[in-house]
Amino acid sequence: MKNTKVTSTFNNDEAEALISWFEASKRSMPWRTTRSPYWIWLSEIMSQQTQISTVIPYFLRFIDTFPNIQSLAKASQDQVFELWAGLGYYRRARLLHECAQLLCENLQGRFPSTRKELLSLPGIGRYTSAAIASIAFNEFVGVVDGNVKRVLSRVLAKDLGQNEHEAWVQAWMDRSIQASDSPGDFNEAFMELGARVCTPKSPSCSICPLQKICSAHHRGQTNEFPTPRRRAKVRELRLVALVLENNGDLLISREAPSSLFAGVAHVPLVEQHTYSRLSKELKWLSPVHKNEKAMEHELSHRRLHVEVHCQKILETEIRELCTHLDDSTLELTSYERFQRKPKTTLFKKVWHLASTSSKSKTP
Ligand code: SF4
Description:
Elements: H1 12-25, H2 37-47, H3 52-65, H4 69-74, H5 77-84, H6 90-107, H7 115-118, H8 126-137, H9 146-156, H10 166-176, H11 183-196, H12 215-218, E1 235-246, E2 249-252, E3 269-271, H13 272-281, E4 293-299, E5 302-312, H14 315-325, E6 331-334, H15 335-339, H16 345-355
Parallel strand pairs: 1-5
Antiparallel strand pairs: 1-2, 1-3, 2-6, 4-5
Bound molecules: iron/sulfur cluster.
């Protein structure tokens, strides 16, 4: 980073214009009423890949239930997942919980105050560490995300989409933020501008505080920056959801297949080719029938085609399944107990199909 040469950066007037615009037009968000690192951290983790309007009710419920980091650290993982259910990307919730426990064990529940120290914590990457350090602790470090890169790409009329440009953009932000008095406001202003004014399509240049210095605007090239990228290919996954019962109890797994739902209890999900192999090896496991219940479920960059297979099985067969799936987290649980556990949206769909299947007991 030290060798990354950055020439022209924001001057004081430009930084001031940006922050004045932000002060006058920023949206009201619960975490903007405070500089609490706990609130900033929660809001940043929840906002990853998720729209702000979706995040706000989740954030408020979280803060209501866990008003401080100590209460979050003491909660069970199930309680955390319960409040997270529906936000997706469950790995975030697991790492959030881990991070709270680590901070309470090692730092009396206090957040470190620098980007470098924050970066060493579970689930906190470059963007989140810079956001917490600048907003909560006034460190002059810039945030870099898709919004920031888009604004900068247009202001400089420069293609910044390649990975090798990351260090350059970071250095540019770290230098430009020095022109402001408030690094937190500078970063928030940049993000807000990207989210609301310098939007991917049809940016609102007429109300933009950076209009005067924006090269793409002056050249009439706002649609040419950033250079359009090919969209990541959506991966198709064909799965079988195993709704297996023993004496009225349901078989669940703590191990999320392919890390889709890390740590959230689920009925076992296996890829179709694995299921075909299993049903040959385990004679008691019926092959998936053509009339099996099926559905689709979308995740980011993945489309799941899921067939729901319902069957009653014996305890000895469960032990065999554990061995064949190499999943030691399989366990039987009563429907009543399972009803109280957090559930993914996919699981709710599987459950709905299973409960309408004539082969399964109605949950
Ligand atoms: S002038 Fe237009 S293109 Fe340039 S930064 Fe502002 S909104 Fe984006």
